[in-house]
Write a structure and sequence with these properties.
about 15% strand, globular
Length: about 400
């Protein structure tokens, strides 16, 4: 049996229980996701019928359940390896919405929503990005929340909201004009004044249902305001963790590209022998593998730092797993990912541009990973600010 993309055997660092759970996930994905993922992508269809089986695996917010940060990252990598869109749905719901409930929800809010959210009986979204404010949403947020007695009145527009077309609840961010503070709300998506429109004509993550959200005089009770949110800085805990998980997606995307390219190179005959028998093809496969291993190592380390691992010490005594380290990991892994999927697409020749062979879908979905949770450029500048003490962001 040929070695797989985990060439340095990071999976062997898991406990026996974690390895068994990862194997359970892998079996589920092989049976329920991989055979159908291309069709879902081609049809831009989200398989809601998959949710009960996905929930039964018990993988919501694994670190909260006592699993290691490495295991949590490998879960996202393995999901992405099978289908980037399903991994993205999972991350939006669990790593942003459910983690948001854990981090900022009141005891009453957690009691009311957390159990059903973990079991995927209700689905959640994370409504932060706006049509005119992506990377600069911290300072430019235009959605407003005005206090009116025991309620808040929300007005504004959100864009690129994953799961936004069908979610039951949104964790939504808005600015209070009177104070300038950013507030967080648990928004019941069925409330009057909310209009949700699916974003069409995407060339990546076609299975994910991204939405434009329009809010017109939407009234939210005070009991659905997240009391743990008092400024945009409060969101950094969630965004840092989510950024790391998108880095793990870059790992999984490279694993998928390597899987497909290696199988094709071994099976495809040209000039009377397998493509794998040509030196240039072997060099490309090894470069893809090296990129994948390097990305896995960086994400494994930053995930551990985020949870205060290695005795709580970071190498130079600065803050553990802070945003700069998350930004470097995401930007570096996504840059390597772009090269890896490009090599894979080229190795398949003409077959690399049709989804029948999976590589075209892998290649296209990589562009979304490269961009979201901070573009390559923004994440690079966050890391650059940390190592120079000078901000290039204005």
């Amino acid at each position: 049996m040929l070695p797989d993309a985990d060439f340095f055997q990071f999976e062997h660092l898991l406990s026996e229980a974690e390895a068994a759970k990862l194997a359970e996930l892998r079996s589920f994905l092989a049976a329920e996701v991989t055979p159908h993922a291309t069709r879902w992508w081609n049809e831009a269809h989200f398989p809601v019928e998959l949710l009960p089986g996905l929930a039964s695996l018990g993988l919501s917010t694994p670190v909260q359940r006592g699993y290691s940060p490495l295991f949590a990252g490998l879960v996202i990598a393995e999901m992405t390896r099978a289908d980037t869109s399903i991994a993205t749905f999972f991350m939006v719901h669990h790593d942003l919405f459910v983690e948001g409930l854990h981090a900022f929800g009141s005891e009453e809010q957690r009691s009311r929503l957390l159990g059903d959210a973990q079991a995927l009986k209700i689905t959640g979204a994370f409504a932060l990005t706006e049509p005119d404010h992506g990377s600069d949403v911290a300072g430019g947020m235009a959605t407003t929340a005005e206090r009116d007695g025991a309620t808040w009145v929300l007005n504004g527009t959100k864009r690129w909201i994953g799961n936004g077309t069908f979610c039951d609840w949104m964790l939504l961010w808005a600015r209070e004009p009177a104070t300038g503070k950013v507030r967080g709300f648990l928004l019941d998506a069925s409330l009057p004044g909310i209009k949700r429109t699916r974003i069409e004509n995407k060339t990546a993550l076609r299975t994910v249902q991204n939405a434009d959200i329009e809010l017109t005089e939407v009234r939210v009770s005070e009991e659905d305001r997240l009391a743990g949110i008092d400024s945009f800085d409060d969101t950094k805990h969630l965004l840092r963790g989510s950024r790391i998980m998108v880095g793990w997606q870059a790992v999984g995307q490279q694993m998928a590209a390597f899987d497909v390219a290696r199988a094709y190179a071994v099976e495809r005959l040209q000039f009377g022998r397998p493509l794998a028998g040509f030196q240039l093809v072997q060099e490309q496969l090894v470069r893809m593998l090296g990129n994948t291993v390097a990305s896995t190592g960086m994400l494994a380390r930053v995930s551990d730092l985020e949870q205060g691992g290695y005795g709580g010490r970071s190498g130079n005594g600065s803050a553990r797993g802070d945003m700069a380290r998350a930004a470097l990991a995401k930007s570096y892994a996504s840059r390597l990912m772009r090269e890896t999927v490009s090599l894979g697409r080229g190795l398949l020749g003409g077959n690399g541009i049709v989804t029948d062979y999976r590589m075209a879908k892998i290649f296209a979905d990589a562009e979304a990973i490269y961009t979201y949770e901070g573009s390559y450029e923004i994440n690079t500048l966050i890391a650059g600010r940390e190592i120079t003490g000078v901000s290039a962001l204005r």
